[in-house]
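One such shown below:

_____
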Amino acid sequence: MSWNDIKASVYASCGALLEPHGFRLIKSRSSYEKVTANGRLMIYFTLVASDVGNRFVRTGCGVRNNAIEDLFHKTSSTDKRCQSATATIGVSCDKLWVLNTTEEVAIAISELNAYVRDVALPFLQKKYSLQDFSMLLNTTNTDGRCPYFANSIWRCHRGLIAELINPFYFQKFLYSLNLGY
């Protein structure tokens, strides 16, 4: 099976689950995406073929809130060409699938479909308010890590932005600074 055939099989199989929900394949970003009123929903695939013939895939999903991301990128070091594709919160899949044999490809596709069906779609189908973004970005698990964003510094920036652009919390924040607004 050629590398292009493997990628097409991954996209076609996952697409069969995603397209009925309004997602469309964006090949240039190796992702299925759906535009929303406030941003975008994404399921992305990292497909890698090494120079020694090994092939791998990893996946994850994310929700983009344009208001948070637009403010975040005013000071981020993210390349301007990539800024429109960033997610505000997400759920990564820690598994790396090997795609070297037909059997490995079949197993990977089956397990990718399970991730899309059981993890990604339920996560992406929720409606997230600014308060939800703030809560999720400012949450840590027992290891002290945020399960919804891996980079702790960028997560903190987004968490502060989510907190501050929520009108209720912004008034509370100003009051806490003794500005009396």
Q: What stands out?
A: The CA atoms of residues 58 and 131 lie 30 Å apart. The longest strand covers residues 39-49.
